[in-house]
Amino acid sequence: MTQLVQAAQSRQIPVILLSPILVSETVNSQDNRRLAEYVAVMQEIAIQQRCQFINLTIPFREVLLTYQRYGGQAQNLLTRDGIHPNSAGHQIIAYTLLKGWGIPEQRLQSLRLQPSR
C-alpha cells in the first residue's frame, strides 16, 4: 500500500486512503478485531505518507453500538448481507466522505436524500 501511495504522489495525484466498513454488524466479532489491525496500518501509512485517511469503521461502529444499546439486535441494519452496504450504509459512507472532504456540517445537514428506485 505504501508503494501505491508513493507512486500516486510522485505523479502529483492526491491520495485519500479509505478504510473498509466493518466486516460484520456484530461489532466486536473476531473479524472486526482483525480489521481494526488493518485499519490501524492504513492510518499509519497515511500519517507517514502525509495523505488523508477516512475511517469508515468509526461511524458504522457508532451507529451499530447505539442501536444495540437501546435493544436492537444485529439484523443487517446497515448492510444487505452483513457486509455489503444497504441504503442506510451508503448514506453513512456518503456523509463520512463528504465530511472528510471538508464539506461544512451545516451544508451536510441541508442535503436531501432521494429514495432508491
Query: What's the total count of β strands?
Result: 2
Order of helices and strands: HEHEHHH
Give me the number of helical elements: 5
Strand order of the largest sheet: 1-2
Shape: globular
* CATH hierarchy: architecture: 3-Layer(aba) Sandwich
> How many domains, in number, for the residues?
1
Radius of gyration, CA atoms, in whole angstroms: 16 Å
CATH superfamily: SGNH hydrolase
Low-confidence stretches: none
The main sheet comes to:
2 strands, parallel
- Give the overall pLDDT as a whole number: 92
Instruction: Provide the CATH topology.
Output: Rossmann fold
Q: Give the CATH class.
A: Alpha Beta
Overview of the structural elements:
The protein is globular. The chain contains five helices and two strands; from the N terminus they run H-E-H-E-H-H-H. It has a single domain, classed as 3-Layer(aba) Sandwich (Rossmann fold). The protein has 117 residues and is mostly helical. The chain has a two-stranded parallel ribbon. It starts with a helix and ends in an 8-residue tail after the last helix.
Secondary structure topology:
Layout: H1 2-10, E1 16-18, H2 30-49, E2 52-54, H3 57-69, H4 87-100, H5 105-109
Parallel strand pairs: 1-2
What is this structure, in a nutshell?
This protein is mostly helical.
What features would you highlight for this structure?
117 residues; mainly alpha; Rossmann fold; 5 helices; 52% helix; globular
